[in-house]
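re: that chain from earlier
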Amino acid sequence: MLVCPLLSIVPVNNVLLIGGPALPEPRLATYIFNNSPGLLNLVYSINYYGVMMAKQKLKVLNENAAGIDVGSREIFTAVPDGEVKSFGTFTSNFKSAVEYLKSQNIKTVAMESTGVYWVTLFDMLEQAGINVCLVKSTMVKNVPGRKTDVSDCQSIQQLHSYGLLRASFIPDEQTRILRSYVRLRKTNIRLASDHIRRAQKALNLMNIKLHFVISQINGASGLRIIKAILNGEHDPEKLVELCDQQIIKHKRQSVILSLQGNYRHEHLFALRQAIDAYEFYQQKTIECDKEIENLLDEINKDKPTPTDMKKPKQIRHNKPMINNLHLNLMKMTNGNDPSQITGLTDSTLLQVIAEVGTNMEPWKTEKYFTSWLGLAPNTHQSGTSFKKRKIRNSSNAGQVFRMAAQTLVLSKHNAIGAFYRRIQSKKGKLTAMKAAARKLAVCYYNVMTKGVEYVELGIQQYEQKIKEQRLKSLQRQAKNYGYVLTPQLE
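^ sequence. v structure.
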């Protein structure tokens, strides 16, 4: 029931008449209830008197449409005639559900993206030649009525038959396979870094401050020293000789002091456990790299080699151990090279392609693309007020652009770094990071769709551009007040 102090609601023969005495003209709305549970079937139009009246029922766009409510133990399917049938979630049950839908001459199916339970059923429906419309639960959760699995699948079916559901973006099968490998690789890297933090904790408990002197204890010098400590060598004078020559030259005495600790058996055991787990996940990351390499070779085996490829950038951290990575990525992008964008490398390009693929047609413009990434500005206007809403988290691809933008924060040589600092001074760090990530995403979209090459203008040209914009704004304001700006004479 609608509640508003300016409206009066009168039920007449299952029809709600809504009138507003505070409005200049009487406004009436006729809400026609459909017999289907949980769904309000309403279509209205507004004429020049401001009268809202129901004209006709919604037109069915997808006649052979079904709706599926997916759960962990059971799925419910609704077909156009209103019949609801439930199936289990074993593979044999999914096969029976697919055969049932085919027997009902179903051409398209809509279902919610519930956790990961939808993945197997989605693949089986797709292989059976049925068009699958995967929708977010937020698109159907506000449908009025009782909340049951049966009513849910009926509501999904009816909304889909009227064409009111918008399908989520699902990449092609090869991209989904690549995405699985890349996400698993990212998980292994994260777990490996967790065990490095545990190793640092064990060193702190023994008052060994090696990680204060050496930037990375998981680097070559750090691992050599830690393994020597685990093998029983505790003499700082001997341990320091395992460092790289540059460290010995500049930090020898600091390293010796940092290695004078309180070596205890229980903490050495914890350190060994952490290093063993770190090396385990490092090995699993290499295995993921091998699978990614094989898949990239399979995808690009018949594609021509692009001409005029530029030299790939150096990857500093967690470099993929993949042969011909840059060549394979350039084949996938048809010679377009987004890795030349400031802040992006072949590693970040691989992560983005694994999430969005190389076909940018699902996004009409860069605004659609950045909105899908979760990088578009948040605007929630109601009349003359701007209401605060919860900020939507970035997608996985959007997070890649955020991480790339973070590397440019302190840069003194590129325009995006200067842009970040300018926005930060006005809106704060979070808004500036999001704006910088959006700028990188727009550059990526333009490279992929238009084939343009990214050219780094540098901070000086960017600051000159901002100066010219401010000067034009001052001249425009002075003109509005009847003044003319003249340069100061030296």
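The CA atoms of residues 296 and 328 lie 6 Å apart.
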